[in-house]
Write a structure and sequence with these properties.
The chain is 38% helix and 21% strand. It is an alpha/beta fold and 239 residues long. A hairpin with a 2-residue loop joins strand 8 (153-156) and strand 9. It is elongated.
Length: 239
């Protein structure tokens, strides 16, 4: 089945160019010129991924992302979001990740890079064939924490946790290697995502978001521990 992409972008010329390129690459593509029509299009016909501009005429792109990702029990929250930003301020990128964006791409960009990012995000969301088995089970349990590989869901004491597709993969990669200290490079290699530049700290933003979702107190984590100067370790023994 053809994967469907929706681009919410007020630059019609850019959207036309991107649409032609992505259609040639085998994707279904629709375009909305503002936030209201984009959200309406999503409600009418869900997309696999949204290419979302940060600067829109009627609503901030961050607010659009919040509305897409805001209800973890909604089918809409499963939609991947790739955020576009023309701003150089790294805080825009960090805030975008914190509100649920799966990836970001600064403008101007090469269409080939956009395509590579889209493929990586969609692969993270749909490909679980390389999952490391844990005791032969797809559900990993650590005390009250359950990570369901098949459903791609995380619960704590039966309550569903809100995580992006990428954050789920980061958590699963750590949990499958519980007790092992992993560097940031090893974590990125485990999820088969794009490599981070040495100065890019977005993985730390994702870890903070995961902790907020699964820890009783994100400021005093018991499940995902920081090993200063090295990386992270997922605790084997948990309540």
């Amino acid at each position: 089945m053809t994967q469907q992409l929706l681009m919410i972008e007020d630059d019609t010329r850019l959207a036309t160019m991107v649409g032609e390129y992505l259609r040639q690459s085998g994707y279904g593509f629709t375009h909305a010129a503002d936030a209201a029509s984009g959200l309406a299009a999503l409600e009418a016909s869900p997309a696999d991924l949204v290419i979302l501009d940060l600067m829109l005429p009627d609503m901030d792109g961050l607010e659009v992302c919040r509305r897409i990702k805001g209800n973890p029990s909604s089918q809409l929250a499963r939609t991947a979001v790739l955020m576009l930003t023309a701003k150089g301020d790294p805080m825009d990128r960090i805030v975008g990740l914190e509100v649920g964006a799966d990836d970001y791409l600064p403008k101007p960009f090469e269409p080939r890079e956009l395509l590579a990012r889209i493929r990586a995000v969609l692969r993270r969301g749909g490909d679980t064939s390389d999952a490391v088995a844990t005791g032969g089970h797809k559900v990993m349990r650590f005390g009250s924490l359950e990570i369901d590989r098949d459903a791609r869901s995380v619960t704590v004491a039966g309550k569903l946790c809100e995580l992006t597709s990428y954050q789920f993969d980061l958590l699963a990669a750590l949990a499958e290697r519980a007790g092992r200290v992993l560097s940031r490079d090893q974590i990125m290699e485990a999820v088969r995502g794009r490599e981070l530049e040495a100065f890019d700290r977005s993985i730390d933003v994702h870890m903070g978001r995961i902790r907020s979702a699964i820890e009783l107190d994100a400021k005093d984590p018991k499940r995902i521990l920081t090993v200063r100067g090295v990386g992270y370790v997922f605790a084997k023994q948990q309540d």
